[in-house]
UniProtKB/TrEMBL annotation:
Gene3D superfamilies: Phosphorylase Kinase, domain 1, Transferase(Phosphotransferase) domain 1. This is Protein kinase domain-containing protein. The keyword Nucleotide-binding applies. It comes from the Eukaryota. It comes from Lotharella oceanica.
Length: 353
């Protein structure tokens, strides 16, 4: 279990030498402005993990980042599901924080799809959506909302063909009471729900289903439902729910798949399908998904999407109100309203993918 407790406090702080007594660090896996991720080996049994090492000096003047870090650890202390990445230890040392977590080596979702070029079908897409819907159903039951669901955060545990896909990066996740609404604008532009993109957001866990709906749309045709090189125009499309299914790309997609996409991408969050309902949908549970491989242009569209993301990333960073970085880099999110401080900042704090 993680060595933490609620309210961001850390239980029984560990000395820095204890981490190195327990683990041996290996090669670097990633690096960012405030953290570095390495492979590490537990000396007692040789088990391999990933460790995120955060330099305390780099975030000592960033209390919001520290608060979010503690909240992420508090959430991960509660998460225990086969389709979610597992965190093992959070060690607070003299100069650094060490977050020991499951090592996932199977690559991101998009990489796996491209490796299946000429073989990827609706049936495989259905299995992917079922896996993540199971994770969301569990999280929402636990009162946890992820708020940053996207392909980049879906990683396979290994390179094996039967490897499990796992939901990662809980940096924007937060606890939510049954009838509570959230108001912080956060997420990733292409996957953020329309109710988040308003002046005074009031939203629920339904935002996770919208993001999964965008992912499903991409899985089925290779391109996103909403696209513009202009971020304001992109947000306008999303708020309008202008989601089309042109015959050129959707002609061979089953009516069951199309129905699920429409129900997940409902602009009205109250009308949006829930994760538990997704699992009961005939395209997921009734084997209505086609086993015929997608046309080669499907993979071509995904390759084009990946290329566009790399190009647009720089421009959108400059245009964004806030720059939110991925799990390896550290992040910022505007404060959540609470009983002592009702922060209604309407500025959109959107993470770059």
């Amino acid at each position: 279990e993680l060595s933490i407790m609620g309210a961001g406090a850390i239980k029984h702080p560990q000395e820095v030498d204890e981490f190195h007594q327990k683990y041996e660090t290996k090669e670097r896996l990633g690096i960012g402005s405030t953290a570095i991720v390495k492979r590490c080996v537990r000396k007692s049994d040789g088990k391999v993990f990933a460790v995120k090492i955060i330099d305390k000096d780099r975030i000592k003047d960033r209390p919001e980042e520290l608060r979010i870090l503690h909240r992420e650890m508090e959430i991960m202390h509660k998460v225990n599901h086969r389709n979610c990445i597992k965190y093992y230890e959070f060690l607070k040392c003299k100069r650094k924080y060490y977050i020991v977590m499951e090592l996932l080596t199977g690559g991101e979702l998009v990489e796996r799809i491209l490796s299946r070029e000429g073989k990827f079908s609706e049936r495989e897409a259905s299995a992917i959506i079922r896996t993540i819907a199971q994770a969301l159903a569990y999280l929402h039951t636990q009162g946890i909302v992820h708020r940053d669901l996207k392909p980049h955060n879906l990683i396979y545990e290994s390179r094996d063909d039967r490897a499990r896909l796992k939901l990662t990066d809980f940096g924007f996740a937060r606890f939510k009471k049954k009838d509570e609404v959230m108001s912080t604008s956060c997420g990733t532009p292409d996957y953020v729900a329309p109710e988040v993109l308003v002046s005074h957001p009031q939203y629920t866990e339904a935002v996770d289903v919208w993001s999964l709906g965008v992912i499903l749309y991409i899985l089925l045709c290779g391109s996103p439902p909403f696209f513009s090189e202009s971020t304001p125009q992109l947000y306008k499309q999303i708020r309008a729910g202008a989601c089309e299914m042109p015959e050129e790309h959707w002609g061979n997609v089953t009516k069951y798949a199309k129905d699920l996409v429409r129900r997940m991408l409902s602009v009205d969050p109250k009308a949006r399908i829930t994760p538990k309902e997704i699992l009961k949908h005939p395209w997921i549970s009734g084997r209505r998904a086609s086993t015929i491989a997608f046309d080669p242009k499907h993979a071509l569209e995904i390759k084009k999407l990946v290329a566009r993301k790399k190009i647009l990333m720089v421009g959108r960073m400059a245009a964004s109100v806030g720059i939110l970085k991925n799990i390896l880099v550290g992040r910022y999110c505007s404060p959540e309203p609470d009983d002592s401080k009702k922060n209604r900042d309407s500025a959109a704090i959107i993470k770059k993918s």
